[in-house]
Each structure stands twice: as C-alpha cells, then as structure tokens.
Amino acid sequence: MSDRKISICQGDALELFKTLNDSSVDLIIADPPYNLGKDYGNDSDSKDFDDYLDFSRAWLKEAHRALKPTGSIYIFMGVRYISYLYAILERELGMSFNAWITWYYTQGIGKTKGFSPRHDDILFFNKGKKFKFNLDPIRVPQKFYRQRNNMRGANPGDVWEFSHVHYCQDNRLNHPTQKPEGLIERMVLASSDDGDLVVDPFSGSGTTLRVCQQLGRNGVGFELNPDYVQMTQYRLSLPFSGFDGVDARMERVPNDMNDPEMRKEYFRNHIQWFLKNHPDSIAEFKRQVKEKYGDDILAESDPVGQLDLL
Ligand SMILES: C[S@@+](CC[C@H](N)C(=O)[O-])C[C@H]1O[C@@H](n2cnc3c(N)ncnc32)[C@H](O)[C@@H]1O
Fold first, then answer.
1. Going from the N-terminus, what domains does the chain have, and what CATH number goes with each?
2. Residue 19, SS3?
3. Residues 6 or more apart in contact with residue 111 via CB below 8 angstroms
4. Is ligand 1 within 6 A of the CB of residue 245?
5. 178 lines ligand 1 (CB under 6 A)
6. What tens digit of pLDDT does each residue of 143-184 get?
C-alpha cells in the first residue's frame, strides 16, 4: 500500500479540477454543499438558486471530463436540487443512470409541523455503459446461507442505513457534515480497485481520503476551507483503528453454512472484505459463530488466527 498517494489540495474545486487530465479518474465521490446555509467557514452554502445550479453544472462538467470512460460518480444531495442534478447528468452530460441511493441515517432534527427528515440521497451515475462494479466485496450476509448467493450474500440494495458519526465517537471531527466512513467504504469497494484514482472535490473533514488510504486507493481531495485541510492532514496521520459507521446487516452470521469448505471461504472473504476494517465487529462475529457452529469452527476457518491479529 505504501506506493499509493493521498493528497489534499486547498482551493476551489472548479479551479482544482483543471489540474486533472481528461479521462484520468476512476471514481469521483462528491458531497458538495447542499445550499442549505450551513457554515463551512465560507459562504459556499448560501447561493441564489440559479447561481447554485450554475455552480453545480460547472463542477459536474469538469467531473465528467476528468472521469475515465469506465469511471463512476456518486453525488450526495438534498431533495431541493437533486432532480436538477439528475437532469444535468443525464440530459446535458449524457451519463448513464445507475442508482438513486437513499442514505437512511435514523436520527436527526425533529420537526413539530411536518415529518422529520431522516434521509439524504445519493446519485450514482456511470460515464459510459461499461463500468467497474465489484459486487462481492460489498455483499451483505443474509440470514440463511444459500450456495447460489455466491460466497457472501446479497446486493446491499439502494437503501443504506448508517447512523451519523455521533459527537461522542472518537472519530468525530469538528466538521458540520462529516459522513460515516463505512458508507464511503461501500462506494470505494464497489466502484474502484486497488491502486485506482479516487477524487473527492468537496473533501470536508477528509472522510473519502481516509477510506482510500486504508483501502489502497490513490486519493485526491479538494477543499476550500484551510482549517478543514489541516483537519484532514491530522486525520490521515492518525493510527487506524477501524472505519466508523457500519451497516448492521454486515454483523450477521448466516445460518446453514454447513459445508466446511464453503464456510472457510465465507469466513476468509468476510475477514478480508469487512472485519479487517471493522475490528469493533469482531467480538460479535465470534460470539455468533460460536453460538451457531460451535467452538472449534473458528479455529478451523481461521487457522492462522488472523482475527486475533486484527
Ligand atoms: C458537505 S461538506 C463535505 C463533507 C465530507 N464529505 C466529510 O465527510 O467530511 C462540503 C465541503 O465542501 C467545501 N466546499 C464548498 N465549496 C467548495 C468549493 N467550491 N471547492 C472546494 N470545496 C468547497 C466546504 O467547505 C465543505 O467542507
């Protein structure tokens, strides 16, 4: 992993995109200001409606130019502007729609007149018809193992449940819209490979870069606020103790894994693709394996004791 490069650049994404060559980026993960008046230490989140659309159009055009023909983009967006962004991506840039993902974050502000918001949306578009998508590393364990489910489990679907990073969590930084690493991990695993280039044009506290650093991707982040750039540099220097944020389904151990060879393969993949980066989930995994398959199975399936080393 040591030859991978992670860099964070301070400045305006619109200008910094110009430093990227045409068709050079494998994956873009963009979490722009939603134009809701949040305080990012600048006035980037308080534009007029049309100015915001012009800004969105301009950076999306740059993103499209920089993506490889096989590249993909994920864009976080609130309800007010998402349909406009969809139209720009599909109608103006000719990109291919893949999924409209709902991020269900379970808790948040409470409204007294109306329904409290509990989700954000994420648009997933591919630049062309041929694109990278690695399903196996992001499959979610099912309640009952079935051979035809291919080693690991089900497609995670387009409703993703991850809690916000809470203020009491060690990983929480002083940024108003820090995203859970587990959520970004799923995008990076699905839509890039080891050594690929991932760009986050609105890097904030550096969540995408932290995930790329741990998953062996090259990462480039752009961020307007110099304090957040410093925050990211600090974050990237910390020892790794696991990603924050977990989809609770990942902590399931399926029933009916009766064939020892298949079980071994399942455990090997689960360690490699999930537990390695989520050490907080290991104790629960061991507990369920013991309960469902007995004491000896873990030693048999993890002969070198990799789980104890994580
Ligand atoms: C929604 S936040 C991103 C949060 C990030 N995903 C995280 O997990 O911390 C958007 C960020 O974009 C930055 N920003 C706003 N306008 C920008 C621009 N034109 N170029 C670069 N960064 C910008 C803001 O300062 C803010 O930190």
1. 6-237 (3.40.50.150), 253-309 (no CATH)
2. helix
3. 117
4. no
5. yes
6. 988 776 666 789 999 999 999 999 888 889 999 999 999 999
